[in-house]
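are you around this afternoon, could really use another pair of eyes. what follows is a protein written twice so to speak, once as letters and once as C-alpha cells for the fold. i want to understand how the C-alpha cells follow from the sequence so walk me through it. anything you notice is useful, everything is just below.
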Amino acid sequence: MPGEVKTTYGTGCFILTNVGPKPVQSTAGLLSTVCYKIGDETQYALEGAVEVAGAAISWAKSVGLITDTSLIEQEALNVADCGDVYFVPAFQGIFSPYWRDDARGLLIGMNMNTKRGHLMRALLEAPCFRTAEVINAMEKDLHAHIGKMSVDGGMTVNDLLMQTQANFINAQIERKAEKEITAVGAAIAAGLSVGFWKELDDVRARIQVEAVFSP
C-alpha cells in the first residue's frame, strides 16, 4: 500500500517506501524504482541502500573482535550506551543518501574507559544510524513523517537492534514472523499471477507480525 515502508537487514540494508502508481523523483539522494507489478497494477517506490549491515558483523568476526555472534546483544547490554564510540562501516564507499565511493570505515571515540560492550553497541548502532539517514531522506521527499516500518532479514532477531532502530527514527518497528519476507513476497506475486489467490487481501493476513518495538 502507498506509504508503507519496509527494510531488510541482511548483508546491507535496503529500505523501500511505496509511493503509489506514479514514480517519485528523489531530491534527497534516494533511488526511484518499481515496487511491484501485479496484473495491470504497478506501484512505484523510493529506495535507500545502506552499504553494510550484517557484513560488518562478519568483518568483526574475521578480525577477532567477536567470536560468537549470538553474544553481541548480551555484551552490548552490559553498558548503558555506546560511550561515545561510533562505527561507520563504509568499507567500500557510502551509499544513500551521500553516494561517496571515496568514503572509508571509521571506529572512533574510544578512550581508556571504553569497554567491550561499547564496541558491541557501536556495531549494532551503525546500521541503525545509516537507516535513520535514509528514513530522514524519505521524509524529505514525501513531506511527511514515517511512523511505522516493517522489517525482516537475519539481523532482526536482535531485539536491542530493533529497539535502537525504533528510537533513532521515532517510529514503530514491526518485525515479521517470517524473517525472509522478500522471498515470501515473490511467492505471493507468483501465486496471484497464476490465480492461486484471487487478490492481495487473501494473503495479507498470512504475513504475521512477531513483535512490535515502539520508540
